[in-house]
Design a protein that fits this description.
The chain is an all-alpha fold and 153 residues long. The protein is elongated, with a radius of gyration of 17 Å.
């Protein structure tokens, strides 16, 4: 399992899940659903996700620390302000919201059921290793932050 930890860029993981959701929707049209305002809902979720991602990136950039999650040991400071007061992982929460928007747009139950798998993948392969590195690097300050702010939202 450790061979995959922090190796695949999160955007690649998101694109993989989005593609898999699209393939499933195409293969299983019987699981398609329709509801009013699905396009609007999809845009709202995806936009909220994009905003979370951008706010997270801007917070890291303004703090002068790395945005690349594959090298958490290169973090120069612990960012706990802005959107990081709401979520320890706003960029990942943003990716999830974008995938929710995509699932709503596809309007297929199979695609929607993949959303928990994204979280189940990201937790051990991306977030847990990052958090371990932050605990080692920032000690009690990170543990305090970790106990005060939720991992996702």
């Amino acid at each position: 399992m450790e061979r995959l930890e922090l190796k695949i860029p999160p955007i690649v993981q998101v694109l993989f899940f989005a593609g898999f959701m699209w393939v499933l929707a195409g293969l299983l049209p019987i699981l398609s659903i329709t509801f009013a305002a699905s396009s609007l809902a999809a845009i709202v979720f995806a936009s909220a996700g994009l905003i979370f991602i951008l706010l997270g990136v801007l917070a890291f950039r303004s703090a002068g620390t790395t945005v690349d999650p594959r090298v958490p040991d290169q973090s120069t400071c612990l960012v706990t302000s802005g959107v990081y007061r709401i979520s320890r992982n706003p960029m990942y929460a943003g990716f999830l919201l974008m995938l929710v928007g995509w699932a709503v747009f596809l309007s297929n139950i199979a695609s929607i059921l993949l959303l928990p798998l994204f979280v189940m993948y990201m937790n051990p392969f991306q977030i847990t290793p990052e958090e371990q590195c932050m605990r080692e690097k920032f000690g009690g300050e990170y543990r305090e932050y970790e106990s005060a702010v939720l991992r996702w939202i």
